[in-house]
Write a structure and sequence with these properties.
290 residues, mainly alpha, two-stranded antiparallel ribbon, 4 strands, elongated
């Protein structure tokens, strides 16, 4: 509170506008992201089943099959663990973005958190930035641990070509962005927080089987491949295979090539479409709350 002197010599209190100025949207988003991350860490079951799922699946499949079931393409052989790794990276991206956001937002809506937040000065953009911060943090740590386990425990060779890591970076960023926006858009589908897990997890689980995550794409029927090509997971997995598998394995893809252009186009299209749908369908209240 400051004072000003009037023409009569008296002083009157004035309000310093800077003292009441709210922090910026980005800063509030980072603070909200810290809150989201703290809440996530406290939910140990979410950390175990969501965060550790790709690592555990890689360990199980690599241990069961080992070197006794190598994958061969165009005369080049890789271990099952090496072939399985790209699909697990792609799954981890979708788990930490689409699944985490869709379920957590649905729960926030159901328990009234969204309604209460809507009545505070917190901008809606900051709320979503906090959710994205949570997803980005978990997917980065999860992917780093997954690659470390694959390399150290199962002798999976990591790329030594910088161009492959550039491919990894843009597929990872586009896939993370598309998955996050899809999660926000899909969060309006569950009618309650209790049904969110089933409504969100089931489609993703099905896509893991039909997108070449658990099986070689050459083993899948054509109709299944064409159906999966409509969704992001198939393209993230294919993009990651182009990073971690020898070039000879491109011939094993349905198109006979890695298709980086198509991968970028499909993921970008999902990003744009989900953003448009999400802005039109997002709900701050439950279905039965007016």
């Amino acid at each position: 509170m400051s004072t000003t002197t009037t023409t009569t010599g008296s002083t009157a209190p004035t309000t310093d506008a800077r003292a009441w100025r709210l922090p910026g949207t980005l800063r509030l988003g980072l603070v909200r992201g810290g809150v989201e991350l703290l809440e996530y860490v406290r939910e140990r079951d979410s950390v175990i089943f969501g965060f550790a799922y790709p690592i555990v699946m890689l360990a199980i499949f690599a241990t069961v099959f080992g070197d006794d079931d190598p994958i061969v393409a165009d005369g080049v052989t890789v271990s099952f663990a090496q072939y399985f790794l790209p699909g697990m990276v792609a799954t981890g991206v979708m788990l930490s973005t689409y699944q985490t956001l869709a379920i957590s937002i649905a729960v926030d809506r159901d328990d009234g958190s969204l309604k209460r937040l809507r009545g505070t000065p917190l901008p809606a953009t900051s709320y979503f930035l906090g959710k994205v911060f949570l997803s980005l943090t978990t997917v980065l740590v999860q992917t780093a641990l997954l690659l470390a386990v694959a390399a150290l425990a199962f002798d999976v060779p990591l790329p030594d070509d910088p161009a492959r890591w550039v491919t990894f970076a843009w597929v990872f960023v586009l896939g993370t962005a598309a998955g996050a926006v899809c999660g926000v858009a899909y969060s309006s589908v569950p009618r309650s927080g209790r049904s969110a897990s089933a409504v969100v997890v089931t489609p993703l689980l099905v896509l893991q089987f039909t997108s070449g995550v658990f099986f070689s794409v050459s083993q899948l029927p054509d109709w299944m491949i064409e159906l999966s090509s409509l969704f992001p997971l198939k393209w993230i997995a294919q993009g990651m295979r182009s990073v971690f598998l020898p070039d000879a394995f491109a011939a094993a893809e349905p198109s006979g090539a890695w298709q980086p252009g198509a991968t970028a186009a499909v993921l970008a299209a999902w990003l744009v479409v989900a953003l448009l749908v999400g802005t039109r369908t997002f709900r701050w209240r439950r279905h039965d709350d007016g």
